Amino acid sequence: MPPHTLASLAHALSAATDLDAAFVALSEGLAETDRGSHVALFRLDAKRAMLRERALVVDGAIQRVALEASLEQFPKNVGRIIAEGSLFADLAEESPGFARMLAMPRESDGGWLSVIGLRVDGQLAGLIALLEPKRVFGTRVSERFSPMVALFEMAFLRFAEREARREAVQTLEDVTQKVHGDYLARLAATEEQLREARSVAKPDASQAAALLSRERDDARIAEDTRRSTRKLVVLEQQLTASIGALEQAHVELHRRSEALRQRTRTLYLVDRALTLAAAREEPQRLADGLLALVGDDMQAHRCSLFLRVPGDPSILYLAAGRGLAPHVKEGTIVTIGIGVAGKVAESREPLLVMDAGEDAIPHPLLGDEYLTTGSFISFPLVLHDELVGVVNVTNRAQHGLFVEDDVERVRLLGLVISLIAREAQLPERLHVSRIEHP
C-alpha cells in the first residue's frame, strides 16, 4: 500500500530492505501528494563530480538511465544550494533545459524543476530532482514534498552507512585471512625444515642451534598473528559502536531540523497575519486572513472561526469558514454550551479528538460529507480571561491525525488571533457589517 502520511512513509522507509525499496516508497508518497509530478534519484561520482545514473519509478519498478552530467553545468547559486543540502534549489525558467539534461519526463508546459542534495558524512552523495507542472494558484509541490525528502534522506544515510560498514568488515576479513595465510605458510616451511633436520641421523651442534632459532621465530610469528587478530576484532567493535552513534545523531538532527522548519513556517504565517492586521483591512477580509493563519499552518482543508456576539455572551456566530458544507453559511449562530464549538467555549478548554465517529460531540460542522478524516481540534480564543471566540480545524492534508504537539501550536496561533481580533475590534465590526449587509 502506498504511504498516506509522513508517519506511514517513515514506517515504509524503516521497513525497506534496500535503497530501491525506499525510493519506491518516496515516489508513492509523491503520487499521493500530486500525481502530475515526477521524482528522480541520481547517484553521484564524488571524485569526478559527475552524475552517473538516474533512477525513476515507472509502474512500481525502478527505471535506470546512465548519465554523464556535471554539477558544474548548474548555475553557481543553484550548485551552492545543492551542495549544502536540506533545501530545494529552484531552477525556475531554466527548468526545461535542465530537465532534458537530467533525462526527466517531459511536461507539455515545461514544468518547474527543483533539485535537492543528499549528503553523507558532510559530502554530497546524490541528488533528488522534482519536476512538477506549472500552476497559477496554490503552493508549490516542492514545499509539501520537503518533509518526505527529509525522511528519505535518513534512509539514504542508513543504506550508505550499511554499505560502508560492509566494506569495512570485508577489509577486516581480507586482512585477517592474509595474516593467517602468511602464518600457515611460514609454519609449513618451518615444519618441512624440522623434518629435514630430524632425518639426519646425527645432527651437529650448528644444525641444532639453527633448528632452535627457527622454532623461536615461529613462536614469535604466532604471537604477532594472535595480537594482530585481537586488534582487528577490537577495531571492528569500535567501528560498529561509532556507526550506531552516528545513526542516533542523524535521527536527532532530523528531529531538530523538522522542528525548526515548523517554527519557521509558523513565524512566517504570524508575520503575514500581523501585516494584514496593520493594513486595517475590511472586517471580513481580516477574519478570512486570521482563519488562513491557523488553517495553512496546520495543513487543514477545513476550518472555521467563531466569534462572540457583542452584547450577548451566550451566543457565537460563524465569522469565517473554509471547506464547510454548502448549507453552513457565514453568520450561523451557535449557543454556548451546545455543540462542539459551544462546549469548548463554555469550558474554555481545547478539545483534541482522534476519531470523530467515536469521541466527538454530534454537530452539523462535523457530520457532513466534507469530513474526510476522524481527527480534529477545537480551541477556545481567550484574552485577559475574556472569551473572544472558538477556532476549529479538521481534514488534515493526506488524511493525517492531529496530536498533542499540534494543540500547542494552535494555542500559539490562537493567542495571535485573539490579540489581533481584540485590537481591531473584529467581533464588533464584523457583527455590525453583517447586520447592515445581511
Structure report:
This protein has 438 residues and is an alpha+beta fold. It has three domains: 6-153, 2-Layer Sandwich (Beta-Lactamase), CATH 3.30.450.40; 163-259; 280-436, GAF domain (Beta-Lactamase). The chain is built from eleven helices and twelve strands. The protein has helices at residues 6-15, 19-33, 76-84, 95-101, 141-199, 205-278, 283-297, 339-347, 356-359, 404-423, 426-436, and strands at 38-45, 50-58, 61-70, 89-90, 112-120, 123-132, 300-308, 315-322, 333-335, 351-353, 376-383, 386-396. The strands form two sheets. Strands 3-2-1-6-5-4 form a six-stranded antiparallel β-sheet, with helices on both faces. It has a six-stranded antiparallel β-sheet with strand order 9-8-7-12-11-10, with helices on both faces. α6 packs antiparallel against α7 (283-297). The radius of gyration is 33 Å and the shape is elongated.
CATH homologous superfamily annotation of the largest domain: GAF domain
> Helical stretch count?
11
Q: How far is the first residue's CA from the last residue's CA? A: 49 Å
Helix content percent band: 40-55%
CATH architecture of the largest domain: 2-Layer Sandwich
Helix vs. strand class: alpha+beta
What proportion of the residues form beta strands (DSSP E)? Answer: 15-25%
Total domain count: 3
- Global morphology: elongated
CATH class of the largest domain: Alpha Beta
Contiguous low-pLDDT stretches (5 residues minimum) are none
- Mean pLDDT, as a whole number? 82
Q: Radius of gyration, Cα only, in angstroms?
A: 33 Å
Order of neighbouring strands in the sheet with most strands: 3-2-1-6-5-4
Q: Main beta sheet: strand number and arrangement? A: 6 strands, antiparallel
Number of strands: 12
CATH-derived topology of the largest domain: Beta-Lactamase
Which quaternary structure do these chains form? single chain
Order of helices and strands: HHEEEHEHEEHHHEEEHEHEEHH
